[in-house]
Amino acid sequence: MAKDKSGFIIAAAFIGPGTVTTASIAGANFGFHLMWALLFSIAATMVLQDMAARLGIATGNGLAAGLKDISENRGLKVFFSALVVAAVGIGNAAYESGNLTGAAIGLDAFLQIGTGNWAMILGGISAALLYNGKYKMIESVLVILVIAMALVFFVTLFAASPDWSAMLGQALSPRLDAEAITMILALIGTTIVPYNLFLHASLTAQNYAGEDKAAAIEASRKQSIFAIGFGGLITLVVMATAMLAFFGQQAQMDASNMGKQLEPVLGESAQWFFAAGLFAAGLTSSITAPLAASYAVCGALNWSTDLNSRAFKAVWMSIIATGVVIAGAGFKPLAAILFAQAANGLLLPIVAIFLLVVMNKGKTLGHFKNKMPSNVLGIVVVGFVVCLGLYKLASLF
After folding, report:
1. What parts of the sequence cross the membrane (predicted)?
2. What are the φ/ψ torsions at residue 292 (nearest 5 degrees)?
């Protein structure tokens, strides 16, 4: 069996600065009243990523190629290709800006030259790592740093001696109102990341080529459930530490004091450690987002998905460049990150609906196509996110 780590790569991809920042803001402003949104996001991620991985293993192709096989009609094929390019391109550009902004916030705590300038430098680093193909080694180091940060969050939570009954009381009093809807969409968008569906399908298609498909799907499913579940637990603990530090307190959380939530363990070093972790999370995600966009766009346009092909490189370069421009445009850092996550939450239904359609193509998938339980869960996930998006739009008027 192939040594596949795609489940852990997916988990590392969504535990970026957007996740850390969004979970921190959610905990600081809403306590545990939005824990339900996070739990829903984790369960939904497991369902959708399992479909994407199964598609890659069963067909040997990525999600973009699968979308084009929905219909034999040439006009519809062109439409689906355009949709993939537009949806993933826009989504990843927004997500990339959030990744670069989050990492820039971390670096700016060490050397204040402005988050816009740091975003440009980070964009250049990400491009250099992708260009020379050594990003996997760097990514492994950065993932270790993110895990180290997560461990500190765990230790901090228990060292702070939280009121567990109060946390449970808030969790059992969920909020879903106009004030909380943007944050709910952001929590969903930072966890169920549309581009991860494309990335997971492409990675499993490559890593399990020539393997027994049934065994590969089972192995991939177990790994993904564990990795995504662990990522969700990290997000939950970040939310909890922010709640303890800021919820119901006079101090308001902003880019300059987010690290305060780690002070019970790290004291004056908290802000520096938080900044280093935010940088590691940001650089990791700023590599995976353009990589996923290249797989999706090249697959949709019948271009080579070889990492060294000109078309593949052109796509990820465009995503990084757009992310740098948006990150350097002068938006407030936390607002930019939150917007990126909310945008992903709104784009998610588009990708998820077509994933469901593809996964019901018996001609392509054979007996690996969706069974009734998978379809029901998928429809529930898509329906709920669509309703949230419509509620968000209605609340603007």
Report:
1. 7-28, 34-57, 78-95, 115-133, 140-160, 180-203, 224-248, 272-302, 314-331, 337-360, 372-391
2. -65, -40
Q: What is the pLDDT of residue 49?
A: 92
Instruction: Please give the CATH superfamily to which domain 6-172+191-395 belongs.
Output: Amino acid/polyamine transporter I (1.20.1740.10)
Token pair for 116: 């816009």
Domain coordinates of the chain in residue numbers?
6-172+191-395
Pairwise pLDDT comparison (362 vs 270), residue with the higher score: 270
Token readout for 336 is 């930019």
Give CA–CA dist 30/172, Å, rounded: 13
Amino acid at 318: S
3-state secondary structure 171-195: HCCCCCCCCCHHHHHHHHHHHCCHH
Give residue for tokens 């001609």: 363
Residue 191 has which token pair? 């966890």
Instruction: Note the pLDDT tens digit of each residue in 342-356.
Output: 666 666 787 788 888
d(CA 18, CA 186): 9
Q: Of 347, 52, 54, 90, whose CA–CA distance to 193 is shortest?
A: 347
How far is the C-alpha of 54 from the C-alpha of 60, rounded, in Å?
10
DSSP 366: G
